[in-house]
Amino acid sequence: MNRQKRRTGRRHPLATVALLAIGLIFTGGAYAALSAGTTAQAETDLTSQQTIDEGKKLFQANCATCHGLSGEGTGTGPSLVGVGAASVDFQVGTGRMPMQMQGPQAQVKPVQFTDEQILQLAAFVASLGPGPSIPPAHLVDGGGDAANGAELFRINCAMCHNVAGAGGALTEGKFAPALTETSGVHIYEAMVTGPQNMPVFSDMNISPEDKRDIITYLKYVQDNRSPGGFELGSLGPVAEGLFIWIFGLGAIVAITVWITAKSN
């Protein structure tokens, strides 16, 4: 009897589908849990006491001479209380800090610290007082509205950085740097911290989504160079007109003189 039951017993036609569904559910759940854990870890890195302690050691060894042992500032460097992690990530991550020499503004140079060390320094400075934090990835991914970003950039930034982000000279030896190779993270951090001579664009002035649009526009400019040939530094119609007057008309005059001399 038992043998007959085993012979006649059949697997339900939906059993395979059910097993696949269960497998997908467990796989998706495990992936979601792992992703959430990774995100939570990234968010807590800046608040980890171990990270802050390591950052304090780095700060006292490399930054305290100018900024004080506790970031309170000295006669040669400003206080860092309240500047936030974003300011540290921008200044140190672009090589501006530590400064190579005193001058009108900090110069870009090769980065002196690893990404981990920059994170540790940022964590320590962030622990001194509340300030702008490092932006999340979705705000600097270049997935915003480039057209809106171009309009916002022309209104708020082009007078110093040039419409194409080529940079420009300011007063007293200062300058607005070119944005042709600047990362989205550093562009966002510059807007919220106002480094050097740049004003601070808080969320009340330019919303986070509008900042994302500006970054999207600048990334578009970085990835799509001028189709018209030599850009002349993207400095605008004045430089282009000067080039035509000096080299274009000069070449025409030289050719005319050469033809006349040859005919004589």
Uncertain runs:
34-43
Q: What is the terminal-to-terminal distance? A: 124 Å
Corresponding CATH architecture of the largest domain = Orthogonal Bundle
CATH topology type of the largest domain: Cytochrome Bc1 Complex, Chain D, domain 2
How many beta-strand segments? 2
The SS-based structural class is mainly alpha
Percent of sequence in beta strands: under 5%
Order of H and E elements: HHHHHHHHEEHHH
The radius of gyration is: 29 Å
Q: Treating each run of at least 4 consecutive H or I residues as one helix, how many helices?
A: 11
Question: Roughly what percent helix?
Answer: 55-70%
Largest sheet: 2 strands, antiparallel
Highest CATH level, the class of the largest domain: Mainly Alpha
The total number of structural domains is 3
Mean pLDDT comes to 84
Instruction: Tell me the CATH superfamily of the largest domain.
Output: Cytochrome c-like domain
Strand line-up across the major sheet: 1-2
Shape: flat
Quick recap of the structure?
The chain is mainly α and 264 residues long.
Provide a descriptive summary of the structure in words.
It is a single chain. The protein has 264 residues and is mainly α. The protein folds into 3 domains: 45-132, Cytochrome c-like domain (Cytochrome Bc1 Complex, Chain D, domain 2, Orthogonal Bundle), CATH 1.10.760.10; 135-224, Orthogonal Bundle (Cytochrome Bc1 Complex, Chain D, domain 2), CATH 1.10.760.10; 232-259. It contains 11 helices and 2 strands. Strands 1-2 form a two-stranded antiparallel ribbon. β1 and β2 form a beta hairpin. α5 runs antiparallel to α6 and α9 crosses α10 (208-223). It holds the Pfam family Cytochrome_CBB3. The chain crosses the membrane at residues 242-261.
